[in-house]
Design a protein that fits this description.
Blueprint (H helix, E strand, L loop, with lengths): L7 H7 L11 E5 L3 E6 L20 H19 L7 E11 L11 E11 L2 E10 L2 E12 L5
Antiparallel strand pairs: 1-2, 2-4, 3-6, 4-5, 5-6
């Protein structure tokens, strides 16, 4: 992977998530097939996914999906295209190893790897870890609304 870092402001330009709904803080590294992001939003009181002041580990899927969106945005930008809106249509092999993300005091490392891209269909695997311990992983299928332009 090439070492290209992006900050939060640059991320907000790539994805439709605005304000606190952008859960990622930075891109640490990426290449044509994968991306590594980091976040401390699981520790923030203004995290929009909090329920009764807790952040369920099921929301790690959203962290993975946002890493996928950033990756797609970076690749589209590189090719002078715009990323199309997409819908998460399938989850596979989801594994969660903790109950709440807010119990984790260290940053989250969010990795997404493109497994397949064909037409408007994308399949990515994702992994969310903290302090080198995997807390969530799985595969996500996304259908984009149209071809990239």
């Amino acid at each position: 992977m090439k070492r290209e870092q992006l900050n939060r402001e640059q991320l907000l330009e790539l994805i439709p998530h605005a304000g606190t709904m952008c859960l990622l803080d930075s891109v640490e590294d990426y290449d044509e097939s994968q991306i590594v992001c980091s976040s401390m939003s699981h520790q923030r009181d203004d995290n929009p996914l909090l329920t009764k002041a807790r952040l369920s580990s099921i929301h790690a899927i959203e962290y993975g999906a946002q890493a996928m969106a950033v990756h797609g945005g970076l690749l589209a930008q590189k090719d002078n295209k715009s990323i199309q809106q997409g819908y998460l249509v399938a989850l596979r092999d989801i594994k969660l190893s903790c109950e709440y993300l807010d119990d984790l005091k260290n940053p989250l490392e969010v990795t997404a790897e493109k497994i397949m891209a064909q037409g408007t269909s994308l399949i990515y695997s994702f992994r969310v870890s903290s302090n080198n311990n995997i807390v969530a992983s799985g595969r996500v299928t996304v259908i984009q609304l149209g071809e990239q332009t």
